[in-house]
Specification:
heterodimer; A: 376 residues; alpha+beta; six-stranded mixed β-sheet; 22% strand; B: 362 residues; mainly alpha; 21 helices; globular
Chain lengths: 376, 362
């Protein structure tokens, strides 16, 4: 069979126009390492599984949930036979778990959970990957390996079927920095903590007088007020964060989350109907204890390496403080500059406090009754 | 329903593939069977734009893939698959060996020419075209030379020669005619005659051949001429193709249609998936995406520069010029400006952009 050159040139146009109506075949392999155990999740395209072992049992060109479910055991057997984990010179046997379905940018994927147990604590993990190597040499396995807050990635293919991930060299410093980054990130996306802090800080540039709020005359008292509030909030949440992480105390997460929402409501209400004035740092301390439980549950979700517990704790906590300081350092100069303006005293302070009450009040109802009213 | 398969098991194509696979399975070392299956998958890859088929085609050549000296036809096939993944060096090694072994292998010479042209090695490409003078049809040979002349400052002569060759080639297939008409349209644009270009685009569509390259070229022509409203109905059903989805999103953005947002998000997801895999097949497209749909000029320029290292066709020069223009960085597009000088490429649009870029005070 010989094509004419025009036809070949026509095809050659595809050189510069990789007309990919689809993406090439990839699977997504996520491994989470905890001491000797590996928890895995493997996303494999239904199209690829169909090509390998056939999923479309009624031959109508569509793969249904029923057809897929019937093949779960075969998929697990096929895939897990093409993945090998070894540590310390011994195999880590793989155990299939539940199957789910997820959509990636190019279609539906079977999501298979699995676990592996190695003979001892994992320092180096040898991973051999040969999924679809015989059927599609262009297939790639995209690995994401997590230990604590540290993440690594690797790409597997026929040219690199076996790779060793040196888990131990995820250095202490890297872990420290990673947990620190998570801490910053958490305060940044943790609106409840930010709103609580803002509620307490809003009055810092004002003083209460019999006729209402007046702007402070100098920067120093405002700064000292903020300093006391932030410090006591920090000390308090660090105490409970540490104690909860070390397992000394615990609070059910729904109770902690509800109490956090309540703390935001009360702090904001205090601005509109002042009850506690001079000693807002006491409020910050008391409720800070509650917020510490919230931070602790985030840290727990990240997974904690027993070997580097203290490191993770300190890194995370410092990250939270850095994030908090960043917010304060933007807030305080702005508030001080605007303190004489109606915009601040009327709009930001009063209306802002009411908005916070409304938002946090909604969270409170959601968390107490386990509802979903607004997304956040 | 979770997923729709690209071919139904009962389709003639599926039946044919099943037969070819079964024949190869009986004797996986039979070169003829392997070539037949590989060729069929490669055709599908080009028709459907589905890279998975390239993987399947490569798998069929498994026993020969790493051999230093495979049979001639398998070697050419291997080169075609390698160039698809942009392994131009690997493909060229195979093609050089193939044309040495059989100087009459027109297909191998064609692919050599195509790769040399993508790399802007016009002297080598001309030699590849000349090698086909006696072993291929007139249309094939003239097409090769015209493609080359069209990017080296002789668009008018190329247009003359190619349109005359087409008039004489009575037996040309619809696919060949589509290809030639698209080339004539491009030549018309380079000559600055947009009406002529449009006539040839229309003639290409009259062949009723589904061709993503033609759709992309016509869509670009419309976008350049402020006719985005015509692009939307043209490409509405082509969202599965990255390159056509990009053009559709550009048109929707120009028309301020609400669909633009969703399509930009879809493109972003696809580029992210490719990045995860380490793919660099889409850099030209990705640069355009960043420049016009995301507004990240710096990233666009970096991608366009990276792309230029591998691919040096007019399109690649254009996105490099436009990104550098957006960044007000003439030095950033130095290589495209040099190429424009050296090649003598005529397109007024690119010449205009280059002049503007040179006028920028860094």
């Amino acid at each position: 069979m010989r094509r004419g050159p025009v036809c070949a040139l026509l095809l050659a146009a595809a050189i510069a126009v990789p007309a990919h109506a689809h993406t090439p075949s990839d699977s997504y392999l996520a491994l989470r390492i905890e001491d000797a155990r590996v928890a895995g999740q493997w996303d494999i395209a239904l199209r690829d599984l169909d090509f390998a072992i056939g999923l479309d049992s009624n031959g109508d060109g569509d793969i249904t949930w029923g057809e897929l479910r019937a093949r779960h055991a075969d998929i697990a057997a096929y895939a897990l036979a093409r993945l090998k984990l070894r540590s310390g010179g011994a195999d880590c046997p793989l155990q299939a778990g539940e199957h789910l379905v997820d959509d990636h940018s190019d279609g539906a994927y079977d999501v298979m959970r699995f676990s592996a147990t190695c003979p001892g604590k994992i320092d180096k993990l040898d991973i051999s990957y040969s999924l679809f190597a015989d059927l599609d040499p262009q297939h790639r396995g995209l690995l994401r390996i997590e230990q604590g807050a540290a993440t690594r990635t690797a790409i597997f293919g026929p040219d690199r079927p076996t790779q060793t991930i040196d888990v131990a060299t995820i250095s202490a410093w890297t872990q420290f920095v990673d947990y620190g980054r998570e801490g910053v990130w958490h305060i940044w996306i943790g609106f409840d903590h930010i709103l609580f802090l803002l509620s307490l800080l809003l009055p810092a540039v004002l003083t209460r007088e019999p006729l209402g709020w007046r702007p402070v005359q100098a920067f120093k008292p405002a700064f000292m007020d903020v300093f006391k509030i932030v410090t006591s909030f920090t000390v308090a949440h660090s105490i409970t964060l540490s104690l909860a992480t070390l397992g000394v105390v615990s609070l059910p997460s729904r109770v902690a989350e509800s109490a956090i929402a309540l703390s935001v409501v009360l702090a904001a209400l205090n601005n509109v109907f002042p009850l506690v004035q001079g000693r807002r740092w006491v409020v910050a301390f008391a409720f800070g204890l509650i917020h510490g439980f919230g931070f602790a549950s985030v840290l727990k979700d990240l997974g904690l390496p027993q070997s580097a517990l203290l490191l993770a704790l300190v890194g995370f906590n410092l990250g939270v403080e850095v994030g908090q300081l960043a917010i304060v350092s933007v807030f305080l100069p702005a508030a001080y500059a605007l303190r004489r303006q109606w915009v601040y005293r009327g709009l930001v302070f009063v209306a802002g406090s009411w908005v916070i009450v409304a938002v946090a009040g909604t969270w409170l109802i959601e968390r107490v009754f386990d509802l979903k009213l607004i997304s956040r | 329903m979770l997923e729709r398969l690209p071919v139904r098991p009962g389709d003639p194509v599926a039946r044919e593939l099943r037969q070819l696979r079964a024949r190869l399975a009986e004797d996986p070392r039979d070169a003829g069977n392997a070539l037949a299956l590989s060729e069929r998958y490669f055709e599908l890859a080009n028709a459907e734009g589905d890279p998975r088929y390239v993987g399947y085609a490569q798998a069929a050549l498994g026993p020969w893939w790493d051999l230093p000296d495979p049979p001639q036809e398998l070697r050419v096939m291997r080169a075609m698959l390698k160039q698809y993944s942009h392994d131009f060096a690997g493909a060229m090694t195979d093609l050089e060996a193939a044309t040495r072994a059989d100087p009459e292998d027109a297909q191998a010479w064609s692919w050599r020419g195509a790769i040399h042209m993508v790399q802007a090695d016009y002297a080598a490409a001309r030699a590849d075209c000349e090698a086909q003078r006696r072993i291929e049809s007139e249309l094939g040979y003239v097409g090769c030379i015209a493609y080359l002349d069209g990017v080296t400052g002789h668009a008018a002569a190329a247009y003359q020669a190619l349109s005359q060759a087409l008039a004489r080639a009575r037996g040309a297939s619809p696919e060949e005619k589509t290809w030639v008409q698209t080339r004539l349209a491009e030549l018309g644009q380079r000559m600055g005659d947009d009406a002529l270009a449009e006539r040839h685009f229309k003639a290409a569509f009259e062949q009723k051949v589904t061709d993503q390259f033609l759709l992309a070229a016509w869509a670009d022509f419309l976008l350049d001429h402020g006719r985005a409203a015509e692009v939307v109905p043209l490409l509405r059903d082509w969202t599965r193709s990255d390159i056509l989805l990009l053009r559709l999103a550009l048109a929707e953005q120009a028309l301020k249609l609400p669909e633009a947002k969703e399509h930009v998000a879809a493109l972003k997801a696809r580029f992210d998936a490719a990045a995860l895999r380490g793919d660099k097949l889409h850099q030209q497209e990705e640069a355009r995406f960043n420049l016009y749909l995301v507004g990240d000029k710096a990233k666009a320029l970096a991608l366009a520069q990276e792309n230029w290292k591998l691919q040096r066709e007019p399109r690649d020069a254009r996105i490099l010029l436009e990104s550098a223009l957006a960044m007000k960085d003439p030095q950033g597009a130095r290589e495209a400006l040099d190429w424009l000088e050296r090649s003598g490429y005529e397109d007024p649009l690119l010449r205009d952009e280059a002049a503007k870029l040179k006028g920028v005070k860094p």
